[in-house]
Amino acid sequence: MAASATTVPSVPTFEQHGLKKHSDGDWANKVPVQTRSARPKSTDVADFAAVTGREVEWRYSPVAKLTDLTAGTLDGSVYEYSATPVDGVAVSWVSRDDARIGSAGIPEERASANAWSSFEQALVISVTGEEAKTFTLNRGALGSGPRAAHTVIEAAPFSRALVVLQNTGDARLAENVEIVVGEGAQLSVVTVQEWADDAIHTATHFSRVGRDAKLKHIVVSLGGAIVRVNPMTLLAEQGADVEAFGLYFSDAGQHLEQQVYVNHDAPNTRSRVTYKGALQGQGARSVWIGDVLIGNKATGTDSYEQNRNLVLTDGTRADSVPNLEIETGDIAGAGHASATGRFDDEQLFYLMSRGITEDEARRLVVRGFLTEIVQQIGDAELETRLQESLETELVGTELAS
């Protein structure tokens, strides 16, 4: 008697391997996002589930203190700002249907989407002209109510400028900043967070860098109870270049967070990411996540990211998570580094052997550690003021041995 034939399905099924739905939901069709580039995107807050803190983009954040920004109603009206007029820089409010809105990126998480859904008009900073120029926008009267904001910084082809976003005073702010760097342009954007002690600020910076253009993006976070600034850069065309720097100083009970994403999506692009932070006081917290994607079209990519944290006292916590995704083997180089530690004993010994007291020697080490980032700004007046702010942070600090 001939044996009966057994038909084997050409495509394996979940049931074939004993995988079935469970009472906690249709998990087989809800596979978690595995890569940074695959996260869902939307400008509508309703497209994002309520934040629980278990999401990959929120797992390091104090989400219970951010509910009014992630799920509440936000005031999206225009706000007061001050700025000194500069030739080659124009500032104006535009409606939501302006073509420039959405040209650099769209939200990947709920706070960003809530801000996008809520703003009434966007503030556009337009840069033109090949002469180097510095423009500072000051915001210091946002108030204590939950608010949304949207800013677009547009650098015309071959233009050159340094744009400073200076933040002070009270705030409960969720915002998006779009940065569009045209062909051959050289743009530096510095965002300085010197908020009041109880301020809360979540921001996503979307950047699109064009052909042979260069963006220098610098985040300085010193003040505020919770500050979460997430820069995302798309190197969209051949020869695009980004240098992303960050400086943060977290005091007792302060949460300072940065989630950096660089997407190499064109040939011969370059990125350098350097973030440095210091922590002091019970409950001081910093979070740095660095994601770099080298896409399958990004041949010749040259990329490196690093994060360094200096612990000044006991009772602090620094989370540092570098990630690298590479989809092509034809690159110039890629790497990442992360370190958290106390002081270099050899540096202290060298300074003390020359008559400097131990406390002052430790403060000199901290200044030297953080000054590297300050010096990248390129504006002497702002650099001096930030150095003074760092000195103020260090006054009276009992540095850990």
TrEMBL record:
One of the GO BP terms on file: iron-sulfur cluster assembly
Region (Disordered) residue spans: 1-28
Basic and acidic residues bias (residue ranges): 17-27
Biased composition (Polar residues): 1-10
Segments forming domain SUF system FeS cluster assembly SufBD core: 148-369
Database matches in InterPro entries: Fe-S_cluster_assembly_SufBD, SUF_FeS_clus_asmbl_SufBD_core, SUF_FeS_clus_asmbl_SufBD_sf, SUF_FeS_clus_asmbl_SufD
Family, per entry: Belongs to the iron-sulfur cluster assembly SufBD family.
Protein name per its UniProtKB record: Fe-S cluster assembly protein SufD
Natural source organism: Orlajensenia leifsoniae
